[in-house]
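TASK: fixed-backbone design
INPUT:
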């Protein structure tokens, strides 16, 4: 059995928030939710919609 894949680098919520605040200030008050991660990406939901 092989070991599960482990990301070399994680994208924590505080970094997602900082990037959103800097690039998309209209999403400043939206919630964040980690939806999943893949080989080379992380998917975050911004807001509830």
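OUTPUT:
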């Amino acid at each position: 059995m092989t070991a599960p894949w482990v990301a070399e680098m994680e994208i924590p919520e505080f970094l997602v928030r900082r990037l959103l605040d800097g690039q998309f200030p209209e999403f400043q008050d939206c919630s964040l939710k980690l939806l999943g991660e893949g080989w080379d990406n992380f998917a975050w939901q911004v807001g509830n919609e």
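COMMENT: The chain has a mean pLDDT of 89.
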